[in-house]
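For anyone still unconvinced, we reproduce a single protein record, the chain in one-letter code, the fold tokenised, and leave readers to judge:
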Amino acid sequence: MSVSESLVRELALPRKRRERVDTDDAERSALEKQNEMLRQEVRVAREAADITAQLVIQQFEKTDHALQRLQRTNEYLNALQETILGVVGRLDLADLLETIVTRAGALVGTAHGYIYLLEPDRSEMVLAVGTGALAASVDHRVKPGEGLAGQVWQSGQPLVVHNYNTWTGRLTPQQFSALRAVTAVPLKSDSVVVGTIGLAHVDEQRKFGENEVEILTRFAGLAAVALGNARLFEAEQRQRRVAETLKAASLALTQASDLDTVLETMLEYLVQLVTYDSASVMLSEGETRLVIRAMRGHGRWSDPDLTQTLSFDAGETSSLGRILNTRQSFVIPDTTADPRWERNPAGADLSSWMGVPLVAGDRVVGMYSVGKAETGFFSSEHAALAEMLAAPAAVAIENARLFAETEKQRQFSHSLLQNAPAAII
């Protein structure tokens, strides 16, 4: 090998080495690019997996929530159906209302509920049903605007209080101190508020939301239906009892011929129609004089020997004179405040009073009166009931007087016959 060839060979070796190095660098760069692409694919795959997992979890949560809502809806519908069947099948008002409150509370997770009902005179509402912490509050009364029930009554709209203890409109009685979140909705009949239904929590963490208020509103509708049905039933039963009492009273009065028996029979049946603490029967003697002939519930004044000494001049007594002149019943709601009430020993303990005329034909034969220690007790309904008995009672009084007069004449004639000298033939 020549010198020139050896030199060329030696010069070519570094170039080959450089070419090999360049090739290795290119391969390394290609591998790094591939690795980077793989890493990106792995990241994308992981992100896709995370997104998929989140979507799956969200779907599971939605499915679970949907199942829970479906379960609550089924529970609500079942409770609603059972309550509707109860409303249709039973007419005991207190039992029905307690069932409605209990089932409504069970659906929203509380054992504490109540129902207030409007009194007949519409001046107050009384707590008719209480469960749980409110069971001891039965008979509690509120006026319009007082407490939660009073405000719902006044507004006719649902109301939610998140903390009753710090609410400025709260009622102060001790039995309400345990309440925390409270809600109430109105009971309506023909768009008129006739009561309120409410639920309460005693746990500070529990609250009432729109769903709970909606459930309670649905049950309020059922309670209103139950209330209407029960009151219709009670009215029918009351009318039946009144009719039976009047029939029995008429028969007993017809069979009684003695005046004292007639008067006692009157008072006996009167108390079955109109509850009273005391009662008296006054009979007319002359134009304006009224004499008490029978009394009940007046303590020592129920003694017949004392009652015979009690008499009144209706011309000087405005309330009695009004009854005799108008031949209409007259009610004094508050004897302590009404100037038309004349004080007398027999009526010293009475706070409300009612007088009813006894009219037979075209003549007033007397009147009877009833009294209560409770102010504002007697109503127009009581007067109507008392008047139903007054008609047969007045006739019985006249018959008893006629019988007594006839018996007196018979005895007089018999006495004359016994004492007359024997007939001379």
About this structure: The radius of gyration is 45 Å. The CA atoms of residues 298 and 346 lie 6 Å apart.
